[in-house]
Amino acid sequence: MKPSSTSRNKKTSDKNARLRMFLVPCSCGMTFAVAENYDRQGTAWSRYMVCPGCGKRHDPKNRLLQIGFQAEGYWTVDDC
Predict the structure, then answer these.
(1) C-alpha separations of 5 from 2, 12, 16, 19 in Å
(2) CA 25 → CA 1, 37, 38, 44, 57, distances in Å?
(3) DSSP-H helix ranges across the chain
(4) Whole-number mean pLDDT of the chain?
(5) Confidence of residue 53 (pLDDT cuts 50, 70, 90)
(6) Which residues contact 46 (CB under 8 A, 6 or more apart)?
(7) Are 72 and 30 in contact (CB under 8 A)?
(8) Helix, strand or coil for residue 58?
(9) What angle do CA 16, 42, 34 make, to 5 degrees?
(10) What is the model's pLDDT at position 4?
(11) Average pLDDT in the 2-28 region?
(12) How far is the C-alpha of 66 from the C-alpha of 56, rounded, in Å?
C-alpha cells in the first residue's frame, strides 16, 4: 500500500522543523529562555518574565533574541 501524500508531507515537514530557542537578555547580565508559545498561554500579566538574577520583569516581545539550531550542530542567531 502506498502512503498518502499528506503523510509524506508531514514526514517532510517534521524533518525540516528546526529546534528554536528564544532568549531574553536582562540588564543585570543574566539571559534566560522562554518557550516559543510563551505569549499564547495564560493571562497578559503572566507573559511578563521575571529575571532569575535580579527579579526585574521583562516583556519578551520587546527584546526577544531568536536562536536556531543548525544542521551542522551549532546555534546561530536567527532574528533579533
Answers:
(1) 9, 11, 16, 25
(2) 52, 18, 16, 20, 11
(3) 5-16
(4) 70
(5) very high
(6) none
(7) no
(8) strand
(9) 45
(10) 53
(11) 63
(12) 21
List the beta strands (DSSP E) in 4-60: 20-25, 31-34, 49-50, 57-58
AA letter at 55: G
Q: What is the pTM of this model?
A: 0.51
Query: What is the DSSP code (8-state) at residue 37?
Result: T
CA-wise closest residue to 59 among 51, 48, 50? 48
Distance CA 40, CA 29 (A): 27
Using CA atoms, how far apart are residues 64 and 76, in angstroms rounded to an integer?
Answer: 14
Distance of CA 10 to the CA centre of its chain: 21
Distance between CA 16 and CA 68 in Å, rounded?
12
Determine the pLDDT at residue 12. Answer: 47
